[in-house]
Amino acid sequence: MKNFSTIHTSFAINFVFSNNITILTGLSAAGKTAAFSFIRECMAINPQIVCLNYLDYQKDIKEMLTQLKNKMIVIDNADILLDDETRKFISLDENNQYLIIGRNPKNLFTTKDNLFELVSNKNEDVTEFWIQPYL
Amino acid sequence: MSKFNEVALDIDCLSTGCKIILNVLYFPNKVFCMKECGDNAIELLYSLKNGNIYSDYAMIPFEMPAVRVANNSKYQIIDDYEELKRWWKNEMLTKSDEEFLNNSYFICNKFCIF
Q: What's the ipTM?
């Protein structure tokens, strides 16, 4: 998935992905989890999207990921959700694309090309979200 | 209030970092993981006069006040960024992840609860 766009009430999301693994990081209260909730609502109409967050804490995330193919997997609260083994699996997973919302890139074999931050701009009544390189 | 549309937010719409700060502030007898905090939230956490926080890797603002760190029954006051980073690194080198989870490493501003 190279682009993801959606509109939710007065918010518009337009993400352009340049990598198989995108780590979305940045300050608290930037709108990352809000963006995640908008993407999660799209799960109902787009079976390609799979969303995970702290509510999945008790599940075996790695086992779940191994069974997915050709999905856009969006993970919020990744710093508490992903253990080292799952991170290593993600870094070598050729079957899926990942949008990981968190700050700890440990074991994901990431470079600055994987790190992005959320940017927002209010245009009249619509707040637009997009991602840009973090470094 | 939401910074995007100035609508009053329910608690479940607050950012994770904001919720952690409120929890640390209002529940000084509990320890909260700060791994979901951004730099802005970490600075605020360290500025609190009271509270207990935890992380299994170093999360330190450059401008930090004196904090009391604890592992098992050992307490220590640290007021220097580099020294605190060294303390954290040493703790990580000597303990496995599992031991971290079992022993709970706290860093706090005034009180520690074991």
A: 0.82
Q: Do B97 and A84 touch (CB under 8 A)?
A: yes
Q: Identify whether B114 is part of a domain.
A: no
Instruction: Read off the tokens for B82.
Output: 């580099």
What is the layout of strands, in order, in the sheet containing A49-52?
A: A3-8, A11-16, A126-133, A115-123, A21-25, A97-101, A72-75, A49-52
> Over the stretch A74-109, which tens digit does the pLDDT of each residue have?
999 999 999 999 999 999 999 999 999 999 888 999
A120 touches chain B (CB under 8 A): yes
- Residue B4, in any domain of the structure: no
Q: Choose the closest CB to B4 out of A31, A80, A102.
A: A31
Do the domain assignments include residue B2? Answer: no
- Number of structural domains chain B divides into: 1
Distance CA A37, CA A44 (A): 12
3-state secondary structure of A8: strand
pTM: 0.85
CA distances from B33 to A39, A125, B94, B96 (A): 26, 36, 20, 18
Instruction: Return the ∠ at Cα A69 (arms to A64 and A74), rounded to 5°.
Output: 65
Which string of b and e fits B32-55 if b means at least 16 CB within 10 Å? Answer: bebbbbbebbbebbbebeebbbbb
Residues B17-36: tens digit of each pLDDT? 999 999 999 999 999 999 99
Backbone angles phi, psi at A56, to 5 degrees: -95, 15
Partner A contacted by B37 (CB < 8 A): yes
User: What distance in Å separates the CA atoms of residue B92 and residue A107, rounded to the nearest whole number?
Assistant: 16
